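During the no-cost extension, the postdoctoral fellow (Dr. R.K.) reprocessed legacy sequence entries with the updated structure-token encoder. One reprocessed record is reproduced below for audit purposes.
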Amino acid sequence: MGFAQEESLVYDLRLSSVGPGRVSGTDVFHNPAGLDLAMKLHYLRMIYFFDSEVAQSLSIMHIKERMFPWFNHYFITCGRFRRSETGRPFIKCNDCGARFIEAKCDKTLDEWLEMKDWGSYKLLASQQVIGPELFFSPPILLQVTHFRCGGISLGLSWAHILGDPFAASEFINNWGRCMNYLDLTKPINIPRPIPRPTGTGPQMDPVCAKPVDPVGDHWIPPNNCKMVTFSFQVTGSQMNYLQAQIWGPSADQTPPFESLCAVIWHCVAQVRPGFEPNTVTICKPDPSHGNDIIGNNQVISKVEAGSEFSMTDTNFRVLASMLAEQGIDERNLIEEAMEKDQGVADFYVYGANLTFVDLEEANVYELELKGKKPRFVYTTLQGVGDEGVVLVMPWPKGANKNGSDGKFVTMILPEDQIVKIKPELKNNGLLLEGDF
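Re-encoded structure tokens follow.
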């Protein structure tokens, strides 16, 4: 699809701002932790699709009105970034607000979802990044797109420096609670002070976070090649077959996430002869942290197969076991690396290695409007490094006519690798003929 044709899919964009219903105060500052700063070149995009029966009673005025109490709870997200005298970024909680975008689409919701044109999904959520003027860059943007049939999509653009996908999901779920006139009983997000120095720096460099040349105030990592997004569903029956193929009747199966990622890891190795990804990054939820407070708390682990491994000759069972059992949490190393330079250095995490992100517990289908859950939720990332990322989402329960539930996978890889990996995914039972 050409650029002009793609752009015409979504049109008549209107911009405004929405902020907290009450003043946050003067001289209120939020200081991102080292792990937050390590994620500042990444952006999360979440798009929620609702049928016309939900949308017909939702006026833009009502949507905005219910955002005021929501942002009272999340006033930090309505601030703007500044730099301290040392250069460390922080948020001035000045109630500048979130950017609100209204748009139209001539396609029906059914027509849009049937296209499976994953590149066009970027039109449903703002692709704006932080900078080059920090003073004027909102950390979050919200876009409501009206489809011809009366259905809508709600697109959230979330600067990852604010928090991980689990925090972002709870953020939008709380908006749904406000829309339903429910009180937010969870504690208001409290701005953090400047972290205290923890020591002289890391004993070793993290593997899961890679430094880049200074990007200044334009927070997006450079890429050496064009990155392309491709998504596909893995049904429940496909997952059951996959588990049976890997483990047979064994009771010691790894969870579906690790088994699925083992197959994808193998497929990526097949299309990178001579440059097999022997080290990967795994991002998973941290069960010890709640999702109601903004911040990056997901576990970020490295898994190293070793240079002596031939990834293409290693069976799926070994790879799945490695992913499940041999991950080494690098969050402290990343924190220390950031604090070593007082939070000024520029790093990226997604795509530093081939990165697998487990989003099955992100509760994206808990957003409820007028008693209805989203028909479909699409999640992707912007600012991914050249090694690529794989996101594993839940498929909405009961969405399939045959009743089977499964996973929804989004891959962001260099363009030439996306072309080559599709036959590999098909050969290993993950892609069906109609998914190409």
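The two ends are 15 Å apart (CA to CA). Residues 1-5, 400-404 have pLDDT under 50 and may be disordered. The remaining legacy entries will be reprocessed before the final report is submitted.
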